[in-house]
Structures are given as C-alpha cells and as structure tokens.
C-alpha cells in the first residue's frame, strides 16, 4: 500500500480542530477543520415549521450546503449564478438534514425549525462528513442557548452524531480519506453514526471493484473508531455548554413563590 501523506497511520484521523462560536449572530455556530478540509456551520432557530408539520406540536431540522468558489483546486461557479443548486449539493444537504434530525426529539423542540447552514471554506476530502460533525456542534450550541433561556422547557438532544469516510486504497483499508486518496479509492464509504456506535446512514460505493462483507466490516470497524474520536472532540468543545445544561436539568427551573394577597393590592387606605 502506498504511504499516506505525512506518514499518517491507516487507522488515524487527520488533525481535527473545532472552534465554537465562529459566527457572531448565529444562535449556534462552529468551524471544524479536518486536515485541510474546513467547514463553517451555523444553526438558526425559527418559530415556524414546514406546512406538513403545522399543528403537530413537533419541530423540524433541515440543512443547506454550499462550497465557496475557491474551496477546490480550480474555481467553481457559484450555484446562485447558475439559477439552481446542483444534484451533488442537494444530495449532501439532504444527507446532513436527515442525519441531524436523528439527534433531536421533535416533541421537545416544539413547533420550531432549526436550519443548519454548512459552508465549505476549503475542500480536501470528506466535506460532507466534516459538515455533519461540525453541524452537530452548532446544533447543540443553538439548542442549549434556547434551553438555558427558557425558550425550551425540555432538553431536546437525544443522540450525539458524527461522521467519517473510510475506503480501500491500493488494497489497504484507510480511515478519513484525503482528496488524493479519495480520488483513487477502490472502495469508498461515508459512515454516519451515534457516539454509542449505532448506524444512522452508510453511503458506500465500489468505485473500482466490488467488495465483500468482511471488507465492509473492516471499514465499519475503522469508521466506528474514528467516530468515537470525533465524538470526544465534540464533547471537549461542548463541555462548558453541556455542563450548564446538565446543571439546569438537575436542579430544575426555580419558580417564584406566589405573592401574598396584601402584596398584590398594597396597604389599605
């Protein structure tokens, strides 16, 4: 098997950095760097739901995905100038929305919509998986802000979600493919799962050859290990926020004691 760039082991993630609060005005935001792939994710909460959710008492989570023109080796045209989003863009943003909906209890969210905007600043492989991993952080930050402010009466996050790519290159199984590896991969999988190792979605293709069950199991084992590390990275940056949430959940919200009648009406006279 060809040596990986920077002598990275076949079962090692690229360096991962997550910064919370990357955007000033968004309810929740994060920038995630996975190797040279950089994604900016923002979460917006609105007091409305799609028509099919109206009067259901449930909320919704959706996503949009876009790539800056010079995120790649050559400039790509902005999709707004083409008049419509491309098929790849639509497929990826639907994937992000589907996967992050798994993280949320819609009843606890109430009739609100959370929109996750994922913008690719630089693409060097694994943009969709990095977007999912970073968008989860932005989602939790936004929901925590609403919960701590009293806008949400129940904590709505039920699953921690992360994603990673795996594949076979030169006959060997690799975790977290860079573009130079992804472009020549014989087999390519994107795996989305919970931190507890439950599968949410697998996108897999035999790019150059079919692959067997044992090979797929090998890739899934690699993916679950990588997702475990990504979940730890998410937890590190979310720790202060989640500590506040847990403290409020433990003690409950204090209700002011009812006022005495004399205090309501004031002294006689």
Features:
269 residues, alpha+beta, Ribosomal Protein S5, domain 2, five-stranded mixed sheet, four-stranded antiparallel sheet, 35% helix
Description of the structure:
- The structure is a single chain.
- The longest helix has 39 residues, at 213-251.
- The protein has a single domain (13-73, 86-246), classed as GHMP Kinase, N-terminal domain (Ribosomal Protein S5, domain 2, 2-Layer Sandwich), CATH 3.30.230.70.
- The chain is built from seven helices and nine strands.
- It is of the alpha+beta class.
- A hairpin with a 2-residue loop joins strand 6 and strand 7.
- The strands form two sheets. The protein has a five-stranded mixed sheet. It has a four-stranded antiparallel sheet with strand order 7-6-8-9, sandwiched between helices.
- The mean pLDDT is 91.
Q: Can you summarize this structure?
A:
With 269 residues, the protein is of the alpha+beta class.
């Amino acid at each position: 098997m060809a040596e990986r760039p920077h002598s990275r082991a076949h079962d090692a993630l690229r360096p991962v950095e997550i910064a919370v609060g990357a955007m000033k005005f968004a309810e929740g935001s994060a920038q995630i760097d996975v190797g040279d792939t950089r994604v900016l994710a923002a979460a917006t909460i609105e007091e409305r739901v799609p028509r099919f959710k109206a009067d259901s008492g449930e909320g919704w989570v959706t996503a949009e995905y876009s790539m800056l023109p010079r995120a790649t080796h050559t400039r790509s045209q902005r999709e707004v100038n083409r008049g419509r989003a491309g098929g790849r863009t639509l497929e990826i943003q639907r994937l992000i929305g589907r996967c992050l909906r798994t993280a949320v209890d819609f009843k606890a969210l109430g009739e609100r919509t959370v929109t996750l905007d994922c913008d690719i600043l630089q693409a060097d492989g694994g943009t969709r998986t990095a977007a999912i991993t970073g968008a989860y952080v932005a989602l939790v930050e936004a929901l925590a802000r609403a919960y701590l402010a009293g806008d949400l009466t129940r904590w709505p996050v039920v699953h921690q979600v992360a994603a990673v790519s795996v594949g076979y290159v030169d006959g060997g199984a690799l975790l977290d493919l860079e573009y130079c590896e992804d472009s020549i991969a014989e087999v390519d999988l994107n795996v989305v799962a919970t931190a507890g190792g439950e599968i949410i979605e697998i996108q897999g293709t035999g790019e150059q050859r079919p692959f067997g069950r044992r090979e797929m199991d090998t890739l899934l084992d690699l993916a679950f290990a990588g997702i475990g590390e990504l979940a730890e990275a998410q937890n590190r940056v979310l720790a202060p926020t989640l500590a506040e949430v847990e403290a409020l959940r433990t003690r409950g919200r204090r209700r002011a004691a009812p006022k005495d009648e004399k205090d309501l009406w004031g002294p006689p006279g």
